[in-house]
Predict the structure.
Amino acid sequence: MKVNYLFPNKFKKIGWLLLIPSAIIGLVTLIYEYEPSFLDFNLPAIFIDDLFKEQKLYGMVKNNILNEILGILIIISSLFVAFSKEKLEDEYISKIRLDSLVWAVYFNYGILLFSFLFIFDFSFLWVMIFNMFTVLLFFIIRFNWQISKLEKSARHEE
């Protein structure tokens, strides 16, 4: 089966090398609310809503770009990890990949539905922020878990 939408296998290693430190640094900066001042910049922005001023369609804002850098790194590295070919990519791996993706989407939206019903205000905003990353993370966890189960059963049969 020819699979054209997957990255080459070497991208998986690059993805893991970027994902793990980016996720750790991201969690640490969230917990300790750390924003280094050397990353403060005046940036162009759209849909500016300043509580104490006016609402504008576009303009300049002062922003610390650490969150943006980490978010981009986490998304790109997660895509590399999730959608890189396995060393031996066959039809069964493709089936596991598809099943894991469907499962991750269902699971993610189940959590989102629960959040709509029971989480409110600023806490809900945090759920939505994490929700940007969780589909890929749930997919990576389930896919790798299924692959490890497949490898264990193959070793057991030998």
Remarks:
- The longest helix spans residues 121-157.
